[in-house]
Amino acid sequence: MGGKALENMAYGILGNAYQGLGDFKTAICYHKRRLKIAKEVEDKAEESMSYCSLGNAYSSLGDFKTAIDYHKEDLKLSKEVGDKAGEGEACGSLGNAYQSLGDFKTATDYHERHLKIAKKVGDKAGEGGAHGNLGTLIEVWGISKEPLITMNAI
Length: 154
What we know:
This protein is an all-alpha fold.
């Protein structure tokens, strides 16, 4: 593993550590450094993970619109590199961000996409998370059960 790869790994670890400590602004600084290096070395998978981490940090700050921008970039790159599990996770993160903004229709659409992808790739934890998120939309927010009925028929 070369110098840039190790540096990038360190920035990711530091970003995650600060996020775990609740220091989201410092976490964002490290995740942005990680993203910069990933772009410099043209590592699309690492770039995708950086976007995901940035989206999570901005969600933690309550800045859901910025989080959505980063999660959309993560989704785009996950598709580009063929990372179906990453694509599903990005959909789940987008669903959560839209739900936090009160856009329950869009949230439901993303959570259903997450569920479909998780089932396709055999990601049982992802399936559970997607079902939980869809259940929250139904129970807490009173969203129609129709999307779930449709999804389970697939």
